[in-house]
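WARN retry 2 of 3 for item q-0093 after timeout on previous attempt; input resubmitted unchanged.
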Amino acid sequence: GSGYHRGTDGLISNVRDEKVDSGYESSIRGQLLLTKGDLEVALRGSWTGGKEGCCLQDKAPRDSAGNFVDLDDVTNPGPSSNILGRQDTQFHDQSARIDYDFGPVQFTAITGLAYVTQDVFADLDYTAVPVSIQDLTYTTRVFNQDLRLTSTGTGPFQWIIGAFYQNRREYNRLQAGADNGVLPITASLLNQQLRTRNRAVAGYGQASYSITDSLELLGAL
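OK item q-0093 returned
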């Protein structure tokens, strides 16, 4: 297993001398291998989560002729908003691989699950005046399953056949409303939700035949 944690007080200040890019992130991961005779099971998992600043905007300064100057200067005048934007992100995935050796054939099953979510809360008008705010949530869940049979013999003929399945779900919610200092947001300006679901099914196969030591015939679908 392994893990880490990192954090920063931030480097960029807004016009009120508040750090707008502070945050932290933590992550852990591990794996486990189990074997018994012809059976092998490999388990893996990880989790990563953190909070950090987001959604900052800075007006680029202009000279007397109206041309942009000092585009890389993040302190002139600096980001302006009455809300420190924050985003909360989490990601975790788990997988299991099972291999069983039947002798001339090996069976393999790989199962995976991944989950990602991001919540964003920030100013919408990007001014120091309390006008409008936004709240965005994005979530994705993905389930994968792969099954295959593979020849293990040493003869000239080798083959593999398998099947794959995926189920993917996504959810997006965007709310915007007046910045009246009350939470949760009253979605008076925008209240949009989108849900999608996709499924994929596939089959595959490959066969090869060694005619000579330097010539092989191969076909796949």
